[in-house]
Design brief:
The complex is a heterodimer. Chain A contains no helices and eleven strands. By secondary structure, chain A is an all-beta fold. In chain A, strands 2, 4, 5, 9, 10 and 11 form a six-stranded mixed β-sheet that branches. A five-stranded antiparallel β-sheet of chain A has the order 1-3-8-7-6, with no helix packed on it. The termini of chain A are far apart. The model of chain A has no long low-confidence stretch (mean pLDDT 94). Chain B is an all-beta fold. The radius of gyration of chain B is 13 Å and the shape is globular. The chains are: A mainly beta, B mainly beta. Chain A binds chain B through residues 30-31, 33, 35, 40-45, 48, 50, 88, 90, 92, 97-107, and chain B through 4, 6, 31, 33, 35, 42-45, 48-50, 55-56, 58, 88, 90, 92, 94, 97-105, 107.
Chain lengths: 114, 111
């Protein structure tokens, strides 16, 4: 059972288009992170959201944490070829049995064509 | 500030052998976590260490083990390698539970 469902799994768009990636769960998370990963490299942290309803912006990227802290979204405005990569959401849960552990979604592979 | 450093970057091993991977966390970070990434399963949590103690462990067989040293550097060991252990092994260091910073990973191929 995948605790964090990420959609879509694959996205191929033209430069300049907008897109949204979703990360959904039936479980509550104390925080949620978004990462971007290039082939053969480690994930790079983009943002952490902690408060329900929180919205954070990073240039053309907008991240939102659901009010109930069970879901999140990543919106990219006017995508560029440099945005190409694997986008991963990861959640942290409270409790001693979850210490140091992130639960990852399956990832969204984004291709932005020039 | 230097990031998380993992060595080696690439490894090729034969079935039945064992392997040790190394991770140096960001200076000041005392928590180190390990993950296995495969195309089919994505990123899966292996274990987490803090101040030389394993605080949490994922659902992997006992062939997977780790340790952390007093300088927070960590190693993970896989014994009796199987073909299915081929993966990108990622180490992450953290200052808080909310953020993890990953190294570039070690690509392990078992033949």
């Amino acid at each position: 059972t995948q605790l964090l469902e990420q959609s879509p799994q694959f996205l191929s768009i033209q430069e300049g288009e907008n897109l949204t990636v979703y990360c959904n769960s039936s479980s509550v998370f104390s925080s949620l992170q978004w990462y971007r990963q290039e082939p053969g490299e480690g994930p790079v942290l983009l943002v952490t959201v902690v408060t329900g309803g929180e919205v954070k912006k990073l240039k053309r990227l907008t991240f939102q944490f659901g009010d109930a802290r069970k879901d999140s979204s990543l919106h990219i405005t006017a995508a560029q070829p440099g945005d190409t990569g694997l986008y991963l959401c990861a959640g942290a849960q409270a409790g001693s049995s979850n210490t140091g552990k992130l639960i990852f979604g399956q990832g969204t592979t984004l291709q932005v064509k020039p | 500030k230097a990031g998380v450093t993992q060595t080696p970057r690439y490894l090729i091993k034969t079935r039945g052998q064992q392997v040790t991977l190394s991770c140096s966390p960001i200076s000041g970070h005392r928590s180190v976590s390990w993950y296995q990434q495969t195309p089919g399963q994505g990123l899966q949590f292996l274990f987490e260490y803090f101040s030389e103690t394993q605080r949490n462990k994922g659902n992997f067989p006992g062939r997977f083990s780790g340790r952390q040293f007093s300088n927070s550097r960590s190693e993970m060991n896989v014994s009796t390698l199987e073909l299915g252990d081929s993966a990108l092994y990622l180490c992450a260091s953290s200052l808080t539970h909310n953020e993890a910073f990953f190294g570039q990973g070690t690509r392990l191929t078992v033949v």
